[in-house]
Design goal:
- α1 crosses α3, α1 (about 10-20) crosses α4 and α3 runs antiparallel to α6 (about 80-90).
- With about 140 residues, this protein is α/β, with parallel strands linked by helices.
- It has a 4-stranded parallel beta sheet with strand order 3-2-1-4.
- The protein has helices spanning about 10-20, 25-30, 35-45, 50-60, 70-75, 80-90, 100-110, 130, and strands spanning about 1-10, 30-35, 65, 95.
- About 45% of the residues lie in helices and about 15% in strands.
Length: about 140
């Protein structure tokens, strides 16, 4: 397990929820935090989304209040969820879990370390997403 705290954005959370694999986050980070704005974005996905109820229940147990977003972040004109993820990471020196290229660029400008990024396999877990289980061997 990685010893850092990760703050997760909506798209990676939705993706893992659809796969029924939010547990991967718990295996990769010491603590996961979900800003309120991210929870609202996930909830707006609609009742037809596979796993939405379970994903929301999982996220509600990790929700944190939104914080002030500094101009250095708001100037990037990101969504509310991405802005909150970055603002929390600035305050707490946490790792950001983002999928949006613009948000990752903003994180880089702020010298924020990334957590796992959607579209890439989580560190040290090649194959977990594709097969739905830890790699053998």
């Amino acid at each position: 397990m990685i010893a850092e705290t990760w703050v997760i954005n909506a798209s990676p959370l939705i993706l893992l929820g659809k796969l029924g694999r939010t547990d991967l986050l718990e295996q990769l980070a010491k603590q996961i935090m979900v800003p309120q704005a991210v929870l609202l974005e996930v909830a707006s996905g609609g009742a037809a989304d596979a796993g939405l109820g379970d994903t929301l229940a999982w996220a509600r147990n990790r929700v944190i209040d939104d914080v002030f977003v500094p101009i250095s972040i708001s100037g990037w004109d990101l969504g509310a969820g991405e802005s909150q993820v970055l603002a929390h990471c600035l305050l707490g020196r946490y790792r950001a879990v983002l999928d949006d290229g613009e948000a990752r660029a903003a994180a880089k400008v702020h010298f924020l370390a990334p957590g796992w990024q959607s579209g890439r396999h989580p560190p040290r877990t090649e194959g977990w997403i594709d097969s739905g289980c830890p790699p053998s061997g």
